[in-house]
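Appendix B. One record, verbatim.
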Amino acid sequence: MAAAALLPLLGYGAVSMYSLRSGAEQTVVDGNLNVARQVSDQIELYVAGSAKILKAVAADLQQTGLATWQQDRILKNYVLEFPEFRELTLVDDGGHATISSRLGKPSVTVPNADSVKIGNVLMSRFSVDNDLLPTAVLAIRVNQNQGWLVGRLNLEELWRMVDRIRVGTSGYVSLVTAEGQLLAHGDPNQKSRVARGDSMSSHPLIQLLKGRSNDRPAYAEYTDTRGALLGVAATIPSLGWTVLVEQPQSEAFAIPISLQRQLEIAIALALLAMLVAGYYWGRSFINPILALTRGTRALAEGRLDERVVVQTHDELGQLGDAFNNMADRLVELQDDVRKKERQAVFGRVAVGLVHDLSHPIQNIGNSCKLIVKAFDDIEYREMFKRTVEREFEQVKRVLEDLRNLAKPQPLEKFPVDINKALHGLAESMLPTAERSGIALETELAFGPIYIEGDLYALNRVHRNLLINAFQATPPHGRVVVRSIRRNEDAVIEIADTGTGIPAERLGTIFDDFVTTKKQGLGLGLALSKKLVEQLGGTIAVTSQVGVGTTFTLRFPITKARPSQLAAV
């Protein structure tokens, strides 16, 4: 529930923060681009104005009837009136200066034909004069007879214009020519690069503009020796120059970063408040469910005295009351079931005792009545003695089974040879098998197999299983006793070809007072299982109705021997 409520809010908050920061950053970029456009417009006006001045001078020189001294005066007046030009010189087609405003030898020549063209004015590549000031040469054709009017343009005012422009407190403007030469830079630490004529061709923004077919402004984020910068560029189409505006990202995006942090803090506080409120509200909703869960587990574990306390009056409270009522009813039902089970077990025990003891007691009673009449008969007295001893042994065996089932007797373990024990038991049970018309066979593994066990307990288990096999096998049937050495275990199998046990009875065949016979207590297999487990073994059964039954016992093989154990 918390995830379902918070995840959409977190997603919305993330999208909001991204949109806010992106929008704020784009606003900063647009602002710097506007600065770059304005600077490019001012520089274009500055250079274009200088070109117009040169055109005006050329127009004055083209007036007919002007003497040489008058043309010289015009050039000097324009230089004095427009400080942008240091020198104006009239050059003929042979490249010789005819008239110049310079007192000494003229220093200008006509630029190459591939120079920058501003209308019909040629502009040379930027250079630095002897005073380390930026300069360029402008030239315009006067007429076919007078040659070219050439002027040296002073770009120092352009430097000052670039120096005056600041973006924030640490952002500067720079100017790059079409050839990639650094013409001006507002950062005092970068002015030496202007004097050296460093190339800016590898600058990220210059590279970005080279890949474009139009003059749209560009921007990029990059890192150099000055740190992480935000740079924008705007071109001057008429000159091919580029205006760069660079500002540290930490300053340019200070407001978006601050807004993002404030939004993150606000979202975190809101989430915290929601979590706190949701925790207390959720606990009031979840605690009854947890109480019901604990109560259900307690009932599943048999602790029927467990009750839940739900203090709400809503559906959960009604569910808690219903759960407690169900638990009370289960206690009543369990008591009733236990009472009926005790009655059923007592009835079964009583029926079994009547069945198992009535016959011996009846035989003893009949013999006692006859002994009174035939007491003088010595032969009958001997028969009476054998009968009483036999029947009392049967009674004693039934009572001993009941006692061992209720309180198992401790067993003394010592090395026992399984093959020897099985062989001896089979010999003793052979007459019983023959009287029942059953073939008793043994299939024993080669050599002795020793396990840690109690010979008396093992014989009792084997005898119980053999007797059950005899009773379940019809005449002319077959009972097999075999031993198998399987890895580190000794396996004993007692198989018969009897009637078999139904599949639905196999799961409870080793329970107390459960038997497949019509009469009896059903203690033989339960007692056998307890004895096997006391000896550290396991017992299992497989059966098929009409085919037969196989009981399998498994014990770990021991390396100890009777003589070695005695020595120890």
